Amino acid sequence: MAGDGAISKTNLKRILLVLNCLILCIGTTGGPLIIRLYYIHGGKRVWLASWLETAAFPVFFIPLAISYIRRRQSWATTTSDGRSGSPAPRPFRMKPILFIAAVLVGILSGVDNYLYSYGGARLPVSTSSLIIASQLGFTAFFAFLLVKLRLTPYSINSVVLLTLGAAVLALHAGGDRPEGESNRQYILGFVMMVLAAALYGFILPLVELSYNKAKQVMTYSLVMEYQLVMCISATIFCTVGMLINKDFQAIRREAKEFELGEFKYYLVLVWSGILWQCFFLGTIGVIFCASSLTSGIIVSVMLPVTEVLSVIFFKEKFNAEKGVSLFLSLWGFTSYFYGEIKQNKKKNQNQNQNHETEMNGHIIP
Ligand SMILES: Nc1ncnc2[nH]cnc12
């Protein structure tokens, strides 16, 4: 019976992992495509697009409520057995220090969402996705500074390749400039997208740093709480931007003028909120069930998919520079992940060896 329980627990974790992978795949390709759809057909509100990235945060209340109910049930069972005299579990367990960290990271995310949405308004999706590919390089760099990530020849190689990939695009900037857009607007969009990749590359290790300094055991539900607070503060930040820019008043007018019709305008807004939430929910889900490496792999693997879909749906040009940039990015990813896998293997081997030495020490005194 115990064995059955163990099997079903492993299966449950596998099912959860597959589910989160699917959610992440949908979010990482769907998010950039739907927001481009908004811009192409007459949407102009950058603050609104930024707001939509995190505005569907109430989604997080569903897994949090399930987790709370389960904790309460388990507490009620142990209490009625007389096995535990612990106080009833609280719906939110975050300590103040972690809460403050989540608020600060949320504000930075709000800034990042604005940079990303600004770039997305000016650039074709195929170009912006390739620029965002450089994010992995920035993450490695900032993780080295903030959480003392060890840089290996593989990760350094990948940083160089990913930077080169973005540089190839920059050299020929404007080659795929959308009709009616000035060169200045295009370049500004390009710079904003690079800044978004850099800032997001800074935010990820910052989140890891706050987990490390939390003085709390990070469980899945605690990570969800962190994400919830982060998304709420990013949404508040973007709401202020929308209020100052009078975006709320503009929504009805924009809906009336939207090329695909009013109903589809609101449909695009609702779906972008859902798809971006899939991106965030999938990312943390995969990190919890597997690792941040796996979540990075999925995002990278989906890059060519986004490229193909943007060429099919939006008839974007796929020129030689994009081909070279995509090749360099994929090479960079492969180098990075190969290095990571090799390092993890070595770590596991060392751990096993240490374990065996300890065991032998006990058996043969
Ligand atoms: N705001 C954002 N949303 C999605 N992906 C990103 N990459 C960098 N910034 C991003």
Automatic annotation (TrEMBL):
Membrane spanning stretches: 15-40, 46-66, 97-116, 128-147, 154-174, 186-207, 228-245, 265-289, 296-314
Signal peptide location: none
InterPro entries xref list: EmrE-like, PUP_plant
GO terms of molecular function: purine nucleobase transmembrane transporter activity; purine nucleoside transmembrane transporter activity
Localization of this protein: Membrane
Gene Ontology CC annotations of this record: membrane
Keywords: Membrane, Transmembrane, Transmembrane helix, Transport
Ribosomal protein found in the keyword field: no
PANTHER family: OS09G0467300 PROTEIN-RELATED, PURINE PERMEASE 2
Family as reported in the entry's similarity comment: Belongs to the purine permeases (TC 2.A.7.14) family.
Protein name: Probable purine permease
Origin species: Punica granatum (Pomegranate)
